[in-house]
Task: structure prediction
Amino acid sequence: MTETDDKSALRLSARAARAGFVARLDPMAHRLAFRALPTPLRALLGDRQCVALYVSMNDEAPAQRLADALISDGKRLCLPRLVNRVGGMEFRAWEPGAALEEGPFSTRHPEQSAEICHPDAIIAPCVAFDSRLMRLGQGGGYYDRVFARYPDALRIGLAWSVQQIDHVPADPWDVPMHLVLTERSLTEAEE
Result:
């Protein structure tokens, strides 16, 4: 089995585990998840001004729920906007309640007229992650390219705790997260 095949198989099993977990999650626990910023995350965000969230799809951990807490801390928010189907992504300003447009792959993103932003913290969805904080994404390479364009941005993976697996295979271009936030914990990369 090649590493690509291995990643494809891991995506399938991780998505199934996530769907089962979310389906069994108590509705109140689901509504309360990801509404607050843990104190250590607040400290790590420090004076970073612009935080990129994402609009969750299906049963992904809902990053947009962190918006109110981030705004309360004086952070400016943005969301990714896919600019093409081959890995191009930019960030556009966003605030809760602002209109979103349909994009490729069933994504939703800010309107073309929204201001372009350059985030200094990027919250990215995880299909899976491991103890090294390697992230398995959807497979399109969008976030890999973004992390290369914003090397100084704080990289924060967001996932349900069930999405942690023993090992995420890493290609040379894969970059570990600095942190992963789940409904149960905040894990920082070891120095």
The CA atoms of residues 55 and 64 lie 6 Å apart. The mean pLDDT is 90. Residues 3-24 form the longest helix (22 residues). The chain has five helices and twelve strands.
